[in-house]
């Protein structure tokens, strides 16, 4: 029986290893495509083993290094600040909603759920942020719109608090004279690292990959995030490639810009920081999702 169980374990591990490798294949193809010659891709398509290698796409990115470094700084800033502030707001909203003795808790939960189904629309939102709050062409235009836009994270954290934080512990703290805010940051937050890491990862990815806010609210190139800069460079390449006379007048170098391989190179430099950060959150991410997703 022991040998049989051991055989099943080896088989399960083998299957999981194969599944893990298949998850790595798209990223491997992405990297190989980014260092493939443009002509080879156009003629033969994408391949794990290309005939001709080329670093032209990365060379073109290097020529834009000053703009990209500035965009990296902006993206790191909005990701860190936005994630921290968003976690604070989300947790401070989710904790009262998790208390069953909150007056009007059902009504506020319904209002929160209602925002998942309906929103004000693009035009009213734009007018509020640009005319009322005057945030156009400021760093806050890249941070504030993402702070209160995801009721799903609030509901996820609320469910975690309701199913994981022991009510007798909170009652004991209240009897000992602890205020609600003290219970929140002394008891609730230390016991909620899994869900905080999970929601933090969600918010961090949202801020890192956000291009819509920069497209709508920012016209100053010095405030462009990484996604907006890469999107603008890609648009410039496509514009030059589609206008033969303009490309010819600018020279053969511009006429042969690596549009296909450049797309791959853009994806590589944009995803590397996320790949580096994800392993540090993985153990909390799995636990937070399994516990926070329980219906409460």
Would you write up a description of this structure?
The chain is mostly helical and 296 residues long. It has one domain (63-294): MetI-like (MetI-like fold). Helices cover 75% and strands 0% of the residues. Helix 3 (56-63) crosses helix 15 (259-292) and helix 5 runs antiparallel to helix 7. The protein is globular. Mean pLDDT is 79; it is low at 249-255 and 292-296. It comes from Paenibacillus oryzisoli. InterPro entries: MetI-like, MetI-like_sf. It is a multi-pass membrane protein.
- Please compute the radius of gyration using only Cα atoms: 25 Å
> Spans with pLDDT under 50 lasting ≥5 residues?
249-255, 292-296
Largest beta-sheet characterization: none
Q: How many separate structural domains?
A: 1
DSSP helical segment count: 15
Mean of pLDDT: 79
**What does the overall shape look like?**
globular
Q: Under CATH, the topology is which?
A: MetI-like fold
CATH class: Mainly Alpha
Number of strand segments: 0
The CATH homologous superfamily corresponds to: MetI-like
- Percentage of helical residues? over 70%
How widely separated are the two ends?
40 Å
What fraction of residues sit in β-strands? under 5%
Structural class: mainly alpha
Keywords:
single chain, disordered C terminus, 296 residues, 75% helix, MetI-like fold
Summarize the structure.
The chain is mainly alpha-helical and 296 residues long. It has 15 helices and no strands. InterPro entries: MetI-like, MetI-like_sf.
Blueprint of the fold:
Blueprint (H helix, E strand, L loop, with lengths): L1 H33 L3 H7 L11 H8 L1 H34 L6 H13 L4 H11 L18 H14 L2 H9 L4 H9 L4 H17 L2 H6 L8 H17 L1 H7 L1 H4 L3 H34 L4
Helix pairs in contact: 1-15, 3-15, 4-7, 4-10, 4-12, 5-7, 7-10, 7-15, 10-15, 12-15
């Amino acid at each position: 029986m022991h040998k049989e169980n051991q055989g099943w374990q080896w088989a399960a591990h083998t299957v999981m290893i194969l599944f893990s490798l298949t998850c790595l294949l798209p990223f491997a193809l992405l990297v190989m495509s980014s260092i493939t010659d443009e002509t080879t891709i156009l003629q033969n398509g994408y391949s794990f083993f290309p005939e001709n290698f080329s670093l032209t796409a990365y060379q073109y990115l290097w020529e834009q290094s000053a703009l990209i470094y500035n965009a990296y700084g902006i993206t790191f800033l909005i990701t860190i600040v936005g994630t921290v502030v968003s976690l604070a707001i989300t947790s401070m909203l989710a904790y009262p909603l998790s208390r069953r003795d909150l007056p009007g808790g059902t009504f506020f939960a319904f209002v929160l759920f209602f925002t998942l189904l309906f929103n004000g629309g693009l035009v009213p939102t734009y007018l509020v942020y640009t005319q009322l709050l005057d945030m156009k062409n400021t760093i806050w235009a890249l941070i504030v719109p993402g702070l209160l836009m995801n009721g799903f994270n609030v509901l996820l954290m609320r469910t975690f608090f309701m199913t994981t934080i022991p009510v007798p512990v909170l009652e004991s703290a209240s009897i000992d004279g602890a205020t609600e805010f003290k219970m929140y940051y002394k008891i609730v937050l230390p016991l909620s690292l899994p869900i905080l890491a999970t929601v933090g990862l969600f918010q961090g990815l949202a801020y890192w990959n956000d291009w819509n806010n920069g497209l709508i609210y920012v016209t100053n190139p010095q405030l462009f995030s990484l996604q907006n800069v890469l999107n603008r460079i890609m648009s410039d390449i496509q514009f030059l490639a589609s206008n033969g006379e303009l490309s010819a007048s600018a020279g053969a170098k511009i006429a042969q810009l690596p549009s296909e391989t450049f797309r791959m190179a853009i994806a590589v430099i944009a995803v590397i920081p996320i790949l580096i950060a994800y392993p540090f959150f993985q153990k909390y991410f799995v636990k937070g999702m399994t516990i926070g997703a329980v219906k409460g």
